[in-house]
Design a protein that fits this description.
This protein is of the alpha/beta class. It is built from twelve helices and 15 strands. A seven-stranded mixed sheet has the order 2-10-9-6-5-3-4, with helices on both faces. The longest helix is centred in the last third of the chain and has 19 residues.
């Protein structure tokens, strides 16, 4: 048995092969081919959003977001996230300004944002942790008050709705990851959801070395294109998103039942949210308990994940070190349990039993 924290959903192979046959017939593998264009159209229809640009991965999407909005100076962000959120800021020559998190939702603590704003602050870039929406209304109120751009890292949030709208409908730009471990994936891939045709046009040039057409190079650009083969996987998987979320919900509710009444904490999901069940995080009362559970799981071929560890304010290559006690506390004690579509209920029960026994020790 080898049970990882997540595994990719794979569509019926016959469907994917039917798309590959079309790709072979056209002999067009990359460079904004027909499959990529169709995938972008289908994404817009599925999300009911107007402007989406498909790119090679979620990290490059973050970098492009900072570049297209001409973000300079300091960027307010969260220390409790995957490294890409912070590394993209640093890669683009900006300075992350870490703001601590709420202990219940695990998202950025909006009551602390204003005191972190300086004359050098140009943007707020924050993740929706484990697909749980940030307080987007408060963040956007702050953004308007101080004239700051708002970028949301929606890497884990595909399928989450807030106020009956896709969470991607908020902010100046929301970036998405379509990595194989995500609820909806294209093997590798990412996207930017933007608010205007002009920003979309600029991003299409930037993802293709700055080319506006075959010969006109009109802006600084990089190679952020994605391939026909990746887009084909996206077209196959898009029709399965609802069933994927429903299955993850079913397994999450099994964990809920098994772990009910234990001295653990679970993430509080924001009100008015239709959640996507992207992960199943558990916060233990002590780091030692977490480590014992991990060791017991590994003995049985089960590999939960310490998302997110360490707290990013401790990164050695950060120029400015911030003190974020809540993020540091949570990072030491949080563990994401295995959750994916063909995970057996008996495995959920076994993992739950390990946790129950650990908390009885």
């Amino acid at each position: 048995m080898n049970i990882t924290v997540t595994k990719p959903f794979l569509p019926p192979i016959e469907r994917y092969l039917s798309y590959l046959k079309l790709i072979w017939e056209k002999e067009w593998l990359t460079n904004n081919g027909p499959m990529v264009r169709e995938f972008e159209v289908r994404l817009k229809e599925y999300l009911n959003l107007d402007y989406i640009v498909y790119v090679s991965n979620g990290t490059i999407a973050l970098q492009l977001a900072l570049k297209v909005l001409n973000i300079k100076g300091e960027v307010i962000t969260s220390p409790f996230s995957f490294i890409a959120t912070t590394s993209a800021i640093l890669w683009e020559g900006c300075e992350p300004q870490m703001v601590d998190i709420f202990s219940d939702t695990l998202n950025i603590n909006t009551s602390l944002i204003e005191e972190a704003i300086t004359s050098k602050t140009s943007a707020i870039l924050v993740p929706h942790i484990f697909g749980n929406p940030c307080d987007v209304e408060k963040i956007e109120e702050i953004g308007k008050k101080y004239g700051l751009n708002i970028i949301y890292d929606g890497a884990q949030a595909f399928g989450t709705y807030f106020n009956d709208k896709p969470i991607f409908a908020y902010g100046d730009i929301t970036t998405i990851s379509f990595h194989a471990t995500k609820i909806f994936h294209t093997v590798e891939g990412g996207a930017l959801v933007v608010r205007s045709k002009e920003i979309e046009r600029k991003l299409r040039m930037m993802r293709n070395f700055g080319f506006a057409d075959e010969y006109a190079i009109c802006s600084l650009g990089i190679n952020a294109k994605n391939s026909e083969l990746h887009a084909a996987m996206g077209l196959c998987n898009l029709i399965h998103v609802k069933e994927i979320i429903n299955e993850r919900k079913r397994l999450s509710e099994r964990y809920d039942k098994n772990l009910e009444g234990l001295p653990i904490k679970k993430q509080k999901i924001a009100e008015r949210t239709q959640y996507n069940y992207s992960y199943y995080p558990v916060i233990f009362p002590e780091k030692g308990i977490l480590e014992w559970i991990v060791s017991q799981c590994k003995e049985r071929g089960i590999y939960p994940k310490r998302y997110f560890y360490p707290s990013l304010n401790h990164l050695s290559f950060m120029k400015k070190r911030s003190i974020c006690p809540v993020s540091e506390y949570i990072a030491e004690r949080i563990l994401c349990l295995p959750l994916y579509n063909n995970l057996a209920v008996s495995t959920v029960d076994l993992i739950s039993e390990i946790i129950v026994n650990a908390l009885k020790r």
